Amino acid sequence: MHILGISAFFHDSAAALVRDGRVVAASEEERFSRRKHDERFPSLAVRSCLDLAGIRVADLDAVVFYEKPILKFERLLETSLAFAPRGFRSFLTAMPVWLQKKLHLPREIDKGLAAAMTPGERVYDGPILFTTHHESHAASAFYPSPFERAAILTLDGVGEWATASWGVGDGHRIELREEMRFPHSPGLLYSAFTAYCGFRVNSGEYKLMGLAPYGEPRYVNTILDHIVQLAEDGSFQLDQQYFDYCTGLRMTSPRFHALFGGPPRSPESRLTQREMDIAASVQRVTEEIVLRMARHVRTKTGEDNLCLAGGVALNCVANGRLLREGPFKRLWIQPAAGDSGGALGAALAHWHGHLGNPRNVSAQDSQEGSYLGPASSDDEIRARLAAMGAVSEELDDAALVEAIAADLAQGRIVGHFWGRAEFGPRALGHRSILGDPRDPSMQRRMNVAIKFRESFRPFAPAVLEGRQREWFELDSESPYMLLVAPVARGRRRELTSEEKSATGTDKLRILRSEVPAITHVDDSARVQTVDAARSPRFHAILSAFERRTGCPVLVNTSFNIRGEPIVHDPGDAYRCFMFTDMDTLVVGNHLIRKEAQPPMAGAEEYKRSFRPD
Question: Where in the sequence is the domain holding 42, given as residue range(s)?
Answer without folding.
Answer: 2-144+335-368
